[in-house]
Batch of 4 targets.
Target 1
Amino acid sequence: MPDKDRKDKIASLQRDLEDARAREKAVGDLLEKKLNEIHAHYHVARTIGSLLDLQEMLRQVMGIIKKTLAFDRVSVYLLDEKNEQLELVFFSGLNVTDRVLLNVGEGTPGRIVENGEHFHVHDLSVFYDTFNDFIHFPAEQKRSGSYIGIALKVHNRTIGAIGMDSPEKYGLSVDDMDFMAILSHQIAAGIEKSRLFDRIQQLSQLDGLTGLFNHRVFQERLAQEVNRRERTRKPLSLIMLDIDHFKQFNDEFGHQAGDMILKQLARIMTSQCRCASIDSCCRYGGEEFAVIMPELEVHNAVRAGERLRKTVEENLFRVNETAEARVTISLGVAGIADSEDISPEELVKKA
């Protein structure tokens, strides 16, 4: 065989060998990727099955997925109870400092929820140039890379969206989107379980009629605040109040009217006190209520109590479909002096 033919034959065999090695590597990489995906499915299922806290569950689940997919930023939005707004409930790799709320249809997360469909972008620079939109939140830092957005569904009902992006173009593929689509059913079910647990926990803490904290939570919160006050020496005040002549309302208008008055008083208390942030508004029992006021001097608590009393006095309380009545309250205010150490029971007696 001439030298040239021999060299050509050797070169051809070398090319065939390199091609075979390349195919072998591709098959090996694919098998490794599929094995990682199987492991991810298993560990995600175990994590979701063992955790009820939403934040911790999402943190661990995204950590597991990150070992398989090449993303470095992720966001999770969930619909609120009324299906009106989306809230950013989890994120990683993003510079988010404030609460983020989106309308359905707003931005990429909002459109994913609105359409109930997954979304893939292999080149984000083209996406931004074309749509001038955001993928995670309005003030995000735009960059090139790739993105997948996943609709979270429970029983064909879209409850939220997951968005993740990679700094590499084509770093996240359609196959990755399909993988996340399969995982999304487990994640959505875990989210629903966590939210249901939270609702049950919340209901166990609230008075069924007024929506204020119940007597058990009052006792727990007061004990906690008294202990905290002993450590920090910061002021603590307590308002105890009840409705004047409440039995007369029940006798004259019926017990349903009494329930209406209790609910209306609870709404006034919530609006007048710092119940959305610091204070704990509680139904102590019957027509008796309490407001635990951490870090508030007693003289300021007296002012708050007087403001509440006047507001109640100035309001007309509906007692049935056609009648309204004036309601007054009596209240007592107590606080713990700087040098004083008293028990929760003693503080209640002082008020």
Note: Residues 3-203 form a domain with the Beta-Lactamase fold (CATH 3.30.450.40).
Target 2
Amino acid sequence: MELLPLLAEVNRFVYAPFLLAAVSLVYAGTRHEDLGAILRHAGSFGAWTVAFMVAVAAVIQVMALFQ
């Protein structure tokens, strides 16, 4: 029975990669006109966004350890 709340929260994170891809492509599309440049910039922007989110999550986890 304790597994049901965990499964209910999974749906929220299913959309995260698609949202990240859409935001990255739109942001890159406003900066470039060539498709190759858009895809390179979107990949770079997506990687930086994921790295930033992982860093913030790591800081929060470290702060939780010292609580």
Note: The radius of gyration is 17 Å.
Target 3
Amino acid sequence: MDRKMPDHITRRAFLGTAAKVALGAAGLVGGSAGLFYYGAVKHRKVGSDALPPNIVRLGEVADLKLLQGVAKVAYEAEYIDAWYTKPVKGFVYVTVGAQGQLLIMSPACSHLGCDVVPASEAQQGGNKDMYFWCPCHGAGFDSEGGAVVVVDRGLDTYEPIISGGSVFFDVMKPIPGETIA
């Protein structure tokens, strides 16, 4: 501890020490940037055509356009919120509308969120427009998801995404059903 600092430092010694410090800092910055890049590349999904986990494939356009009536189609997807990933399993009802458009309907009742089911003749109670029935409170919906009895808003739908001859939809983006006056 009795060592004294030199009274003066030479220019050569100062530049040598400054160069070592600068190279060390550059090495640390470059090394950490390289590690971040390596991690990003390693965890990237394989293939540039990989679908986001919330996009679900329903089937081929040609097959779905030939539907007679309403089909129940099951799906599996993932809900990703920042760092949290949750698997989602469910189903949708798919049909071809009166204008020939493909309709993808959520099974959740617009009143309480219970899953609707196809209505039996007894549940229809003479109302032939009623196709879906909610077992929670008796709400009715037609075959295109429109509100018929008890509720004033139809079933939520999903926009069909057609790509490469297949039909997809985004599980996280339901379109609210039409409200009747």
Note: Residues 1-44 form one domain.
Target 4
Amino acid sequence: MYRMAVLAMSLEGQIEGLDVNRTVSMCLVHDLAEAIVGDITPHCGVSDEEKFERESQAIQKIASFVPVNYVGEHWVELWREYEAQDSLIARIVKHLDKFDMVAQAFDYERKYGIDLEQFFESTKTSFSMSPFVEWDRELRQRRDLWLQKKSVT
């Protein structure tokens, strides 16, 4: 979430009409429910409806602990907007989430010497907006160079 928020700040002036502060806020709360329910992936065998229900209950529970009621309600609102994917900000945060995932995978490959090709395969067509298409291309080029150097040594 942190890398996503920092990258969101870098979008200032790059995407017309983008509210960067709201984007950063959504980056920080979009996965907050996972603190309670964990990261439910497609491999978990949980339906989309069940995942949504579990996470919805979790984000509401977390929000109920926030001392200033309207702040917690705002977090729930941001989470719902992200889940609906019907706003520019939500789609941008989805792109940031996918980019963060492949960037983290590349970090782990270099740090731990493991092959995380499945993350790169699963996101091949995930990026459709600028600057994410360019960021993804640059990351994949860096990874390809790293893999070439690694195979030589």
Note: The chain has one domain: 2-152.
